[in-house]
Amino acid sequence: MVPGGGRQLAAKITVARRRSRKKLPEAPVTVDIEALSHDGRGIAHVDGKVLFVDAALPGETVQFVYTDSRRDYAEGRVVEVVKAAHERVVPKCPYFGNCGGCSFQHAGSEAQILYKQQMLQEQFARIGKLTIPEFWQPLTGPYWGYRHKARMGVKYVAKKGRVLVGFRERRNPFLADIEACPVMHPSVGTKLMNLSAMFGKLTIRDKIPQIEVAIGDEQCVLAIRVLEPPTEQDREIMRDFAREQDITLYLQPKGPDSIVPLYPAHPSLPTYALPDQDIVFRFRPAMFTQVNTDINRKMVNRVLETLALEKTDMVLDLFCGLGNFTLPMARQAGLVVGVEANKPLIEHARVNARLNAIDNVEFHAADLTRDVSDMPWAKRHYDKVLLDPSRAGAAEVLPQLKQWRPRQVVYVSCNPATLARDAGILVHELGYQLVRAGVMDMFPQTAHVESMACFEAG
Asked: pLDDT tens across 255-277, in order?
């Protein structure tokens, strides 16, 4: 075979497909929006094909133009709202529609959370074959300036004569040209142009692809990804900026483990607190923490209220991260065991336990997508179990509940589809009863749904 022949053939096939795709109609089309998709787009039907329309709400009549058309579905964007839903509002951000950081600013904040509750209800019915018997009151918090964690793109664009800092365009790989971001914490969201100007002075301005943003309760940290080493002059420019803006700067030449401080030379780690439990967490810039501090505190309180822990309880916290739920549960339970695949997170969880003088916890590193039944911690009985998995859900570890026999399971989810799937397993296969569920507005102005469900042994 000729070297590279496979890639050349694939490229020719891709070009052929593009050429064979029908040209999209240019004239606007009027449709009635019937419902919302799981990602917050309006759903309609045209010529027997399902249509997904950005920035459209149920009950509206809109004019749209096609942005894509496939065999089974089509996509479009609103060009005019003929009849508006009463939930529709004027987006606060002038970049809404172009910037892909938000998808829901055209709906009022109170309406957003109700839509998310409806999405959760629909997923439970369709995927889990379950009816939610009782809804928690939605957890809500600040609608703007809430975001404490983000990965923001950086791109030097010669034609614009400046460095762009922000999020990618909606359904487009290009970085959006924005000057501010109202959902980001103001310590970063109001300083995008300052960052742009600073990066523009660097000799490596075209070698910086992203910034890792990590904002604690009292400290703003930026970890700057650098594809080439900065010169000493570059370093001085960045140090001066950090000093002027009261920001802690790190450099990241390779993966997350390569992050090193630039200014100050020996910074303290950022922290966030759970005041109701008298707990403070230290974390490193690239470590996972919740983006919304206010909602996180309310979420932890709801978990504790639901579990109603006692000193005789043995609790298992799966996908525990750096102990966000583990340590507050340990304030009330007899023993809490936290399990997480990420070893650095587990080590940091142990550090946080010592920092808060909590000694009735254990932390273990284990891949919960694999069989863990032979591990010593997995051979115990647990009274209560907390699940807080990634978007992939917890299906692989659920059969282990037969061994643990917990009276109660609380499931915190960032993906209602996998929560609904796993709820079906818990109820239909493992005999648990779904008691209640609800949503949390962790990501206002987006269609992202954070949710929680409680199950009890039948």
From this structure: 988 999 999 999 999 999 999 99
Q: What's the N-to-C CA distance of the chain in angstroms? A: 62
List the domain range (segments joined by +) for residue 212: 149-263
The stretch 182-189 carries a mean pLDDT of 97
pLDDT score, position 17: 41
Instruction: For residues 430 and 415, give the distance between their C-alpha atoms in angstroms, rounded to a whole number.
Output: 21
DSSP 427: I
| Residue 152 Cα distances to 161, 193, 206, 222, 420, angstroms | 19, 13, 15, 10, 31
Answer whether 168's CB lies under 8 Å from 153's CB: yes
* Cβ–Cβ under 8 Å, residues 36 and 119: yes
Q: How many residues does the chain have?
A: 458
Say yes or no: 134 and 213 in one domain: no
Do 452 and 336 lie in one domain? The reply is yes
What strand order describes the sheet that includes 450-457?
361-365, 335-340, 314-318, 384-387, 408-413, 450-457, 432-440
CB atoms within 10 A of CB 334: 14
**Residue-wise pLDDT tens digits, 20-70:** 456 888 899 999 999 999 888 999 999 889 999 999 999 999 999 999 999
Cα angle: 291, vertex 109, 144; to 5 degrees? 40
134 with 219, same domain? no
Q: Of 273, 256, 183, nearest to 219 (Cα)?
A: 273
DSSP output for 295-325: HHHHHHHHHHHHH---TT-EEEEES-TTTTT
Domain count for the chain: 3
Residues labelled catalytic: 414
Rounded Cα gap, residues 167 and 151, in angstroms? 8
Q: Which residue has 């052929």 as its token pair?
A: 16
Name the residue among 411, 417, 415, 409 with its Cα closest to residue 450.
415
Read off the pLDDT of residues 126-168 as tens digits, 9 standing for 90 and up: 999 999 999 999 999 999 999 999 999 999 999 999 999 999 9
